[in-house]
Each structure stands twice: as structure tokens, then as C-alpha cells.
Amino acid sequence: MLVDQKEILKDKLKEIFGYDQFRGNQEAIIQNILDKKNTFVIMPTGAGKSLCYQLPALVQAGTAIVISPLIALMKNQVDQLNAFGINAHFLNSTLSKSEINRVKKETLEGKTKLLYVAPESLTKEDNLDFLHKVHISFVAIDEAHCISEWGHDFRPEYRRIRQIIGQLGNLPVIALTATATPKVQQDIQRNLQMEDADLFKSSFNRKNLYYEIRPKKDIKKQLVRFVSQHKGKSGIVYCLSRKKVEEIAELLRVNGFKAAPYHAGLDSNVRMQNQDAFLNEDCDIIVATIAFGMGIDKPDVRFVVHYDTPKSLEGYYQETGRAGRDGLEGNCLMFYSYNDILKLEKFSKDKPVTERDNAKLLLQEMSSYAESSVCRRRQLLHYFGESFDTDCGFCDNCKVPREKYEAENYLLQVLRAVQQTEERFGLNHLVDVIRGSENQYVLSYGHNQLPVYGQGAEETQELWQSVVRQSLLYEFLEKDIENIGTLKLTQRGRDFMAMPYSVTFTRDHDYSTTEEEEEVEKEVPVLKPHDEALVAILKSLRKTIARQKGLPPYVIFQDPSLEEMATFFPTTKDALSHINGVGMGKVAKFGTPFIQAIQQYVEENNIDTIADVVVKSSVNRSKTKIFVIQQIDRKIDLFEIAESQNISMDELLSEIEHICYSGTKLNLDYYLESILDEDQQADIADYFLNAQTDNIRTALEELGDDYTEEELRLMRIKFLSEYAN
Ligand code: ADP
Ligand code: ZN
User: Fold this and answer.
1) What is the DSSP letter of 474?
2) pLDDT at position 237, please?
3) In CATH, which superfamily holds the domain spanning 3-201?
4) 324 lines ligand 1 (CB under 6 A)
5) 50 ligand 1 Cβ < 6 A
6) Same fold, 209-399 and 404-507
């Protein structure tokens, strides 16, 4: 019976949404909802939260209520669902009286599977009366972090949700959010009274996003250069003020880019127009304020630039999360200056004390993230309460080696300071004590009497702050959830104090004195497995159809699907339905013109298509191929690739060789660099350049004392890619 249900869900996933597999925790979450249990989902942006409540809504009787704070996003989601052939509606202040009546009627007739409701509509008396009459399957609360004032997007009306749901009966609740530090998570669960909920927290790691921070210098020149490197791709540039938004949009326009501004001060028609232009690909770059909840749900945004330093890591993470939602390329560049931090601090000076203190803490986290030289991904994941034990290799700090130092004694001082002040203080106070500050606070606690007092007087405040932060990051210390700002020792910290050992910390960036910051040059991406010309044809077809139907293009088909079509050239409905992201619903709705276009292209260019009969088996093989190319493109460690495909290193190498021999260039430099130094590489390359054969046995006889077979094979691939392809 269980197996049956699993099968049914999987079939529905393919039939309705066109996906072959669930991602991450999706299946377990859906099962939990179907079992009528309270469910708490923490999943990063782009990981696929929506499906977690959409699918169970479809396979159950009744209507699922989805509470979502972003009105713009609601329409978007409902459009997408309708494109899949699903009956979904929304209820918010943008609807006319008669539209509202129609929505209510369809819902009461039991036709509507998902009903999106804004929190403020939820509290209205007549809506409540209506909801009482609806057969509700469950309630989903999207963007649940809005409940917590410790988050970055607190909305007071969210505090009333629990009470209202309570009035509607004993309904299962699923709360979802993309950002929750451990503190915020606790807050959400307490407030929704769902401490008993099953928690599904997925990794926050967005492997395809590249994080980079540059000092804010010559910024306009830098920005123009950066967007030139990404010409024709979709991107978002965030600025702090409306004035800046206008200015930068103009700057980009005069430099020949298709850019448009977007901020709350614009006339709402203009705003809608610009958003639509961006979604419909008439405009490549949108320049926007972060203050405005944009509800951007575009899967193929290729870069996100923070022109100004953001107010919090939560905001930063969510905004950068809008890049590469389809799993393909996503570049995240932030320009940082401490002046921005000071400016932002001033913004909140008239706010109530708790709010101001909280804003300040968030800003401190932001600036320490920017200034730190530790792997960006490691820092971000740690911030969201996830341990990530290695450096990622795919961020600016990993790519450009930073200065390291022996930190055993520094760490010891910090841990002693924490212990001697009885684990009741925060970063600034600890640093004051270590440096022997005579401020009132230190004296009033008598901390000038402690043995650790003044032990680190000869080092700067910045150094000590950085040591404390790295002690946290490497889990010698932890934050006290109940008392915000307070640091405590972990078991690892205690063990270290009992028996100290050598540890290496990284020197922070000193952006104030940077003359010319080294730049991380991005390599031009290698050849793609798909036919670029056909992709272009399909994209323009998609745009035309999108315009006819009044939908954003990606609602029709997403980029990865188009790329797959240009790889397998499906020319029948059945073949088309095998493409990832294409369900039967979409085939019926949009398939015909795409099939015709592919057919025509295939005929004009004499392309051998994979016959329909072999589509199924060869799809998998080619999928591995595409996957491998994409992963190498993203510079993923080969071991990781092999592991995720469940194949041995040997098999992976064969696959790579196969790809290479069939003419695709692969750039493996990132991996080679990690296993062979320059001289060794030159040595092997020299051999292949002069050898009579590229046979590996022969090479092993010659070089086998110094190199492994794997190293030789990898170098042979590099050699072939460079010379033969
Ligand atoms: P979130 O709400 O978590 O930010 P979305 O629900 O918008 O993310 O999903 C992000 C993207 O992932 C969407 O383009 C969606 O179509 C796609 N997606 C979701 N689930 C799957 C799946 N099981 N297989 C493939 N793609 C998926
Ligand atoms: Zn990194």
C-alpha cells in the first residue's frame, strides 16, 4: 500500500509537473502532509518548496489554503499552476468584487485545489465566514520567517495566523521558509504552536552559485565591466536607494544594456511594465531596491549584483538565491564598504531599542562576512545553523588564496575570556576584556580583575574580533539561542582548552587599504552539449507564444528543458514528454509548435535524431553526460561528481574521455591544479606532445614511477581538449 502511494505520487509528479524525480526532501515532506502531520520546512530559495504543498493539495480532497505575503508572487504562482492545468486561485486586495465572488464560488463547489490568501485578507470578517464553509485539506504558510521579529522581514499580521487557523478547526499546517537562523526557527515554531512539527531542514548549500565580494572602488566601471561579461543574460542589480536605482539603470542603458529600474516609488504601471519586460526577456537587467519585495520567480537569472551592502545576511542570501534557480549558472557579486554599514546603522537610529539593537547585530554579521577571508559558503551555511566541514572551492575566498596564521594562542585567549566571564557576554565585551579596555562596562563587572584581562593588548581590536568569529565558525564557541549575542563554549572549545593544539585561522581582508584588489577572472564556459542555434530558435518561439498567451516565457518551458530539446531533438509528442520539466499537460498545451520547429530544424540541418524507440535508454546515458559536463562547468570536485552519479572514478574518467573524444571541450584545470603542480603538469604535457601514441599503458611505462594512471588520464584529456578539439 505504501509502495503504491509512492508510485502514485511519482506518476503525478511526471504527469502534472513533468519531473522524473523528487528533489531532496520533497517526497518525505509530501508524505508527512498526506499523513496529516504538522510539518516545518526549511529549504533554500530555488530548492523547490512550492511543490511540497502543491502536489499534496492535488492528490487530496478539498482545497489547500496557502498564506503568502507577496501579492506579486501569488499571481505568478497561480499563472504557473494554471499553465500546468491545475485549478488554483488567489484572494487578495487586487481582485475586483466580481472576481472575488467567482473565486469563492469555485472554491465552495470544490473545484479549487489551491487557494492563495494574503495574511491581511485572511483576517477580514467576510473572508473568514467564507473559509468556514470551505472543505480545507491543509494550510500552508509560505515565507514563515515573517512571523519572527528576529528575522529580516517581520510582518506583524503574521502573528495572528495561528489564532485564525485555530478558528477554522484542527487543520494540519505546513510552514515553509528559505531563511531561518536557529533563533528564528525557534521563534516560528513557538508562535505557530507547532513545536511538535516534523522538521525538514535541507542543506542551504546552493552549489551552482558563485559568491564574490569586491571593495566598493571604481564601482561604476567595475559594474559595467561585470555586466559586459554577462551580456544578454538576465540579471538583477540591487541598490539601497531609489535615487541610486534610477541612476544605475540609466548608467547601464547609456552603456548599451537593456536595463530598467524597479522601486516602490515608481508609478505602479511603470513598475508592472518593467517587471513584465524582465520576465518576458525584453529587458535583461532589472535595477531594484531591496526594500521592495519583488516576488521575482524567474528561474534563469544568471547574476545578482549588490551595488550597495545589504542590511542582513538573510536578505543577502535570499536575494542572491534568485540567481540560477534552474540549477545552471549563477554569479553573485557584492560590492562592500564599511561606509555602507555605517549609513545603514543611521537608518535605524529612530527605531525602538530592540529593533535597533537587532538591526545592528544583523549588520555586524554582514560586515564580518564581507571582511572575512574564510570560504563564503562555509560562513553562510554556518550562519544558518548548518555545519559544513570543508571549504567549497567555488567562491572568491577559495579561489584566491588568503593569508593564514597560526592561531593556537589567540584562540586560547578568547576561550579563556569566555570562560572567565562565565559565558554570559558577547563579542565586543570579550574583545574589550582581552585588550584591557577600561570602559565602564568592563570595570563595573570587575572584569579588569580577571587573569585574561589585558593579555591581548598589543593586537588590534579587528584582529580579536576576527579570532572570535572564527572560533564560532569552527565551533569552539556557539551562540546562546535564548540570549541573543551571548557566546558559550562548545565541547570542542572545552577540549581545546584542556589540551590545546595547532589551528590555522585566516587574516581578514583589509578593504580600507586595498589599492588594487586582485580580480578573479572567470573562464569562458566550455562547449555545451546542446545545439545553441536550436536553443535560440526555441527561445524565440517561446517568447512569441508567451506573448500570445500573456504569460512569462519560463511558464511555458524552462531553459533546461529547451536545452534538453536541443540535445535530443524530440519530434513526437511522446518523445517530447520524456524531456525533463515537460509533462503531458504541457505537451498538450504548448507542444505542437515546438515539435514543428524541431522537426524543421532537423530536416534543414540533416540531423540524425535519436529514434523514438531508443529514447528511453539513451536518455539516461546522455543525462549522465550532460550532468558531467555541467558539473565540470561548475568546477565540482571529480570525486563528488562520481559519488553523486554512483559510479567509480574510473567510470567517470571513461565518461569524460568519451565526451572529449566526441568533440566537446572540457576544462579540467580547476581539478588538475588541486592534484598536480605546474611543473608536473608541464612534464606530462611535454610527454604527450612528443609521444607517438596517446596510449595510457605506454605513458605509464614511461612516467609510471612519478604519476598515477588517473593523473595521466586527466592530463591526456586536457591535452586533447586543448589541441584536438
Ligand atoms: P522555492 O520556492 O523553494 O524558491 P520553487 O518552488 O520556485 O523554489 O522551485 C524552484 C525551481 O525548481 C522551479 O523552477 C521548479 O519548477 C523546479 N523544481 C521543483 N521541484 C523539482 C523537481 N522535483 N525536479 C525538477 N525541478 C523541480
Ligand atoms: Zn568557498
Assistant:
1) T
2) 96
3) P-loop containing nucleotide triphosphate hydrolases (3.40.50.300)
4) no
5) yes
6) no
